[in-house]
Amino acid sequence: MAAGGEIFSARSWLFAPGDSDKKMEKAAGGAADIVLIDLEDAVAESEKPTARTMVREFLQRQAGGLDRLWVRINPMDGPHTLDDLVAIMPGRPGGIMLPKVYGRPDVDRLDHYLSALEAANGIAIGSTRVIVLITETAAAMFTTGDYAGAPRVVALTWGAEDLADSIGASTNRNPDGSYGFTYELARSLTLLGAVTAGVAPVETIQGDFRDLDGLRARAEKVRRDGYRGMLAIHPAQVDVINAAFMPSEDELAEAQEIVDLFAANPGVGTIGFKGGMLDRPYLARAQTLLKLAGRG
After folding, report:
1. Which residues form the HpcH/HpaI aldolase/citrate lyase domain (predicted)?
2. 206-234 per-position pLDDT tens digit
3. Least confident of 86-95, 119-128, 190-199, 244-253
4. 8 Å CB contact between 173 and 161
5. Which residues contact 152 (CB under 8 A, 6 or more apart)?
6. DSSP code for 6
7. Separation of alpha carbons 147 and 240, rounded Å
């Protein structure tokens, strides 16, 4: 969990396959706030041992910036988790993405593994951060509010494709292309779970990386809903996501007006503004918006 009440800040989280030096290098050289080097879905079963070595060597070649280079390992209920961690931790990744959890015990178990491997590799204990994919199994949907105080966890995110597989659904979409009810529920529960835990909620991917207008609209919407960042599967999505998670100048100007208005009238509970009445929650939201833009 973030220290001192501060929420971890990262707008774009870009996946890069761990079996491609070219794609890892391109992602690391780009504008993504976090690069998620993938050892799970992007790597074929037969290639996982080779990919682990490639990821470790890639991390060890970096002159700096390891804080933004994270690794998605394979899930706890499979045979690869410890092999992944033993291979990559000498490279000192900035964080780990844990997929397909069944609940909080998976995170606690990961913490034990990481503590041992940090000690073995001369890494400060507890310094490797974690983002958790908390909706990829049906069971995990019932534990989305259990991550308050979870060790190392700075962000929660959700997934729709593996959840559909978990429950045996033939699709996760409505006829108009929008997510079905169960998947919108997953999105909402992730947001509420992250807020309860005091960590960053991160929106799931948009699979169609060519639809940048649709990506922009969706990213702007979930940012207004309370999300702090979004996963990306292609470098072309990064600039759109980064821009969408920065409040507009009009939003910032209005937020500053609200903050200034309350500051000029200390002690009031409600105050008139542009023909309406504002109470203290409006002030809190305005302050949060300014902080997100580095103006708070």
Report:
1. 11-235
2. 999 999 999 999 999 999 999 999 999 99
3. 244-253
4. no
5. 107, 110, 111, 114, 126, 128, 129, 130
6. P
7. 30
- Beta bridge partners of residue 14, listed in sequence order: 35, 232
Q: How many CA atoms lie within 13 A of 128 on its CB side?
A: 30
Cβ atoms of 262 and 54 within 8 Å: the answer is no
Tokens of 264: 């000029």
What is the b/e burial string over 266-280, where b = at least 16 CB atoms within 10 angstroms of the residue's CB?
Answer: eeeeebeeeeeebee
Q: From its phi and psi, is residue 273 left (phi > 0), alpha (psi between -120 and 50) or beta? A: beta
Please give the Cα distance from 204 to 207 (Å, whole number): 9
Distances from the Cα of 181 to the Cα of 116, 165, 176, 184, angstroms = 41, 16, 13, 5
- Which residue type, as a one-letter code, is found at position 195? V
The answer on pLDDT for 28 being more than 50 is: yes
The H or E element spanning position 129 is: strand 129-133
Mean pLDDT of 277-286: 81
The 3 state secondary structure assigned to 219-268 is: HHHHHHHCCCEEEECCHHHHHHHHHHCCCCHHHHHHHHHHHHHHHHCCCC
Ramachandran category for residue 275: left, alpha or beta (phi over 0 → left; psi -120 to 50 → alpha): left
The tens digit of pLDDT for each residue in 252-276 reads 888 888 888 888 888 788 888 887 8
In the block, residue with structure tokens 């033993």? 86
Summarize pLDDT for 57-110 with one digit per residue, the tens: 999 999 888 999 999 999 999 999 999 999 999 999 999 999 999 999 999 999
